[in-house]
Amino acid sequence: MFMKKMLLKLWKENKALLVFISLMLVFRSAVADWNDVPTGSMKPTIVEGDRIFINKMAYDIRVPFTHISLVKLAEPQPNDIIIFDSVASDKRLVKRVIGVPGDKVSMKNNRLFINGQAIAYKAKELGIKSHHKSIETINGQSHTIRLNNVASQLANFSAVTVPADKYLVLGDNRDNSADSRVIGFVPRDEIIGRSSKVAFSLNYDNYFLPRSERFFHQL
151 or 54: whose pLDDT is higher? Predict the structure, then answer.
């Protein structure tokens, strides 16, 4: 009885705060959130220390705190940067969509072929000792990828057809990314949202100081 009275008192005294916290948690779960990026698998597009916005209503309206879709609003498209809770890797990952259901995709010496068409590449800079950059164009949209000067064992894979309700994803840091070449296709129901902008960024190599030039940076 005493405990019940204490709980009722706490509720009455903090009702506004508790309602606000509850609504904020629901909002972050089902509408929008941000995600820390601790690794360099999406360099140069996303760097370690970036916090990226997640639009959790880009593809679905979901039951808060679950992966249950109430309404499908859209499907991931090539070039989308998606966030997904990977069962295969047991962690949340950020990658770029390369192949959608039905696409036939292969890679030779870090060059993609989609549905029999060679993807266009253009050198961006000569690079340094370890890597260089290139501009990759898919579906008329371009983005920059990073490649090791000495290609890794991930640089090649034979043609695969993307199954229904699954997606082939790659990191922009092509020789240093545990993506579909490692974890397999990404199931549609693991995808929680899409990102197109950095919220803010902290420099891990410089005492976690803010990188102001990356605040609200478009991806």
Answer: 54
The per-residue pLDDT for range 48-70, each reduced to its tens digit, is 999 999 999 999 999 998 999 99
The answer to pTM > 0.85 is yes
To the query of whether residue 41 is one of the catalytic residues in this protein, the response is yes
| Nearest residue to 150 (alpha-carbon basis) of 170, 164, 130, 165 | 130
pLDDT band at 2 (very low <50, low <70, confident <90, very high): low
Choose, from 41, 86, 177, 195, the residue flagged as catalytic: 41
| Secondary structure in 3-state letters for the chain | CHHHHHHHHHHHHHHHHHHHHHHHHHHHHHCEEEEECCCCCCCCCCCCCEEEEEECCCCEEECCCCCCEEEECCCCCCCCEEEEEECCCCEEEEEEEEECCCCEEEEECCEEEECCEECEEEEEECCCCCEEEEEEEECCEEEEEEEECCCCHHHCEEEEECCCCEEEEECCECCCCCCHHHHCCEEHHHEEEEECEEEEEEECCCCCEECHHHCCCEC
pLDDT at 126 over 90: no
Annotation says 95 is catalytic: yes
In the set 43, 56, 95, 166, the catalytic residue is: 95
